[in-house]
Write a structure and sequence with these properties.
This protein is an alpha+beta fold. Among the domains are: 3-104, GIY-YIG endonuclease (3-Layer(aba) Sandwich), CATH 3.40.1440.60; 114-178. The protein is 25% helix and 17% strand. The chain is built from seven helices and eight strands; from the N terminus they run βββββαααβααβαβα. It is flat.
């Protein structure tokens, strides 16, 4: 049974070894539910191996694998590991602070639908003036005849839930879910006009900087004596592991 190294949101600079049940694949960056003392905790897989520093019979199996894919892009995963090592901060707390709170709680990594109030065909054929005896319902129907309203906009438009439910009972309005489409925002950016051209000195400086990708910052110019700084990013050696 493979061993997975799991980062937990605890102030310890290490991961914890668990057994991965047969049939499951260790997905680096995926969440797992694991036993933690007398409780259950959400952790993130940081690695896997066939052995542990502890006897395998002392390791507990994970409860469940919560994700089929990593929650982190390669670049984000890399910078988070670097930050943990460079700043000597617990890897579990670093990874969990990079996640939205619902994912930290073990909720599904999926886009939740947005619920929207809209006027039905019957509602569109009903003049708001016919609801003069129910001013809140009249106000709500008039708003929905202009455009659909998402649930989170109800309070902004000073509509009441009771009025909306009353209109729904009458068949004048209803709720529908709208799936939020996710897309990469980067291709939408374009450079307008001609790109600026670097002069010789600028091109030399940019070339020198790009040739030292993954290196630490250096002082290009400043007052006082000259400072030399060319220390590279900490290299990740080995894995975080240890007993629970």
């Amino acid at each position: 049974m493979p061993v997975v190294h799991v980062a937990l949101p605890v102030p310890l600079a290490r991961t914890f070894d668990y057994l991965l049940p047969a049939g499951l694949q260790p997905v680096i960056g995926a969440r797992v539910s694991v036993p933690w003392g007398k409780q259950r905790a959400i952790g993130i897989i940081t690695g896997s191996s066939e052995s542990s520093e502890l006897p395998l019979e002392r390791l507990k199996p994970i409860d469940s694998l919560l994700d089929n894919d990593s929650l982190f892009t390669t670049s984000l995963w890399r910078i988070l590991l670097w930050a943990s090592e460079y700043y000597h901060y617990p890897i579990g707390e670093v990874l969990f602070h990079a996640l939205p709170i619902l994912l930290r709680q073990g909720k599904p990594a999926e886009v939740a639908p947005l619920w929207q109030w809209f006027a039905t065909e019957q509602g569109r054929a009903t003049p708001p003036e016919s609801l003069k005896r129910a001013p809140k319902q009249q106000q709500a129907l008039a708003a929905l005849l202009q455009r659909p309203v998402y649930r989170h906009q109800v309070s902004e438009l000073e509509l009441t839930e009771s009025a909306l439910q009353a209109l729904r009972t009458k068949g004048l309005i209803d709720l529908r879910s709208q799936t939020v489409a996710t897309q990469d925002w980067r291709p939408g950016f374009a450079v307008l006009g001609e790109r600026l051209r670097l002069n010789t000195e600028q091109a030399t400086a940019v070339g020198a900087i790009r040739s030292e990708d993954d290196q630490f910052c250096r002082l290009a110019a400043g007052r006082g004596h000259r400072i030399r700084q060319n220390r590279g990013l900490p290299q990740r050696t080995g894995k975080y592991s240890g007993e629970r």
